[in-house]
Structures are given as structure tokens and as C-alpha cells.
Amino acid sequence: MNFDVSVLVRGVEGIADPEGRTIERALGVLGFPGASAVRVGKIINFSLAADDLASARSEVVEMCDRLLANPVIERYDITINTAPAS
Amino acid sequence: MSVNIAIIRFPGSNCEFDIEEAIGKLGANAHIVWHQEHDLSGFDGVIIPGGFAHGDYLRCGAIARFSPVMDAVTRLARSGGPVLGICNGFQVLTEAGLLPGALMRNAGLRFVCETVEVEVTSNHSPLTSQVALGTRLRLPVNHGEGNFTCDEATLAEIESGGQVVLRYVDNPNGSLNDIAGISNREGNVVGLMPHPERAFDLVVGSDDGVPLLASFVRFVEEHVASHVAVGRA
To answer: What is the value of ipTM here, to two decimals?
Structure first.
């Protein structure tokens, strides 16, 4: 089966996010003083061939733990959907 | 007999020739080793130089840690062999789990490229074992991601274990506790953000990097001597 995978990688709470803080300041300057707690992350999208949803998920978890995220400073959320039949 | 030190080159490394020259001048044999090598037998120590290994894609050092040579570097480090990571090399060593913590984007998002003052705060590393505590050195920094961070428990552990070997006098990047360089618990693996190899001759403005790199070479020589002694016993 083919799956569409989306991994969202974000900084863990409590660790400074200099990029988010800078964007938050810029939003304030731009006239959006209500924006707060800005955090910057990244999304990694890919297709994955796997036997079933459970094995796809366990494979993606391993990818995240070993490469896609650094557990010291980042956490991740995984979204997996069955790819539409082509 | 001169010791053999491997200088690992990744696609994107750019400080390998500076460190090769510095190590050579200190009387050791420096060899540049391509990251696809699997075998580091015959080498007594390893240096991972600065640069932008694999373009720094994903995170600095994240791809480099899976290069084939890193298995051999890890084996050497785990067996007590001396390993030094400079700048990007420091980032690679944290990603590989050979040093604690992580290096993130500088505070203020500023890429820092200047000469800074650092203080030697521990002798528990190959880089500082021969340098007097409290020695202040002027070294160039040149990085966008040198802001050292770790969780509170790790910070307490590295502080109490004497693993913080260099501290900035005037913190240029937001690094936790002004940390510029750390070692592992065992004291054989060390990483730092400043570039001692770029302060190796007064002609480039400072030779304050010499005592650190001389200490590293001496540490490698003593490591080899102790192993030879064990082998003969």
C-alpha cells in the first residue's frame, strides 16, 4: 500500500526559538500586536510504501527518532493518510 | 614516532586544510579521510573540521552522522580514542550522540564572524588537558548555529562533571552558561565552536589556538603510549 506521510517537526517547549521570537517581533511592528507564542517548525512530506498503516507508522516513528528530529531540541507529530489509488 | 590523526572530510567541509597544516606543524601525521571510508584502523585520533557537511540540510550535522566513516569514529571514541570536533564538527558530534546537548540557531539569528575571548574552565578534555585553568584565548568564531543548549539535568551533569572546557568571556550567540566547548564524561571526546586552527600564526592575527591543538596532539601521543604500555604488559 502507498501512504502519504507528513511529519511536523517543532522545537520542544521551554527551549528558546530565536526564529519564532524574531517573527513575533516583526508581526508586532507590522501591526499585529495580538500575535504571540510564535514557533517555527518544518514539515517533511513524503510517500511511503508499506504493508499496512501500523507498519507504516512504526517505520515513520523510527525515521523521526533516528534522523528527522533531534530529541534534544525537537518533537514531532506524524500524519499518515492512505494515498488515493492512481 | 609520530601519531596518525585522521581529519574527516564530508561534502561541504571547508576547514580541513587549515587543521591539516596546524596538526602537521605540531609534529603529528595528519591525513584527510573521505567520509565514505569505513576503516580508521591505523589512526590514533580523529578531528572533524568545520564547514557545512552535506549542506547542513535538515539540521547541522544530521546527515553527516550517518556517513559511513561515523561508525568507525564512534568505535574509536567508545574505545577511549581522542576525538575533536570544531564548529560543524562539534555539531556532528552532538548529532551522533558522542557529545551531549545540541547547537541551535544563534540568539538574535545573527551569523557571528569575529574574534572572541574564551576561558579554559576544565582540563577534562584532549584539547585543554595541557592548558592552565583560567587561561584566556582569543579565537575566531564563524557560525550561525552555535547556541549550545541541553535539558537541565544534562546541564547539571556536564557542569558538575567538569565537562564544560571552554566558556565565552562575552557570549556571542546566546549559548547556555556561556558554553563554547564541552567534553564527554570520559574526557576523550571534545567539541568547540571557535576555530583554533584559524589562530595558528601571528600572521593571521593570533596564535592562541596553538596551546589547544598542541594539547590535543600531546593527548593523542600519551593515549598511544599508554596503549603500547598496556600491550607490552
So the answer is: 0.79
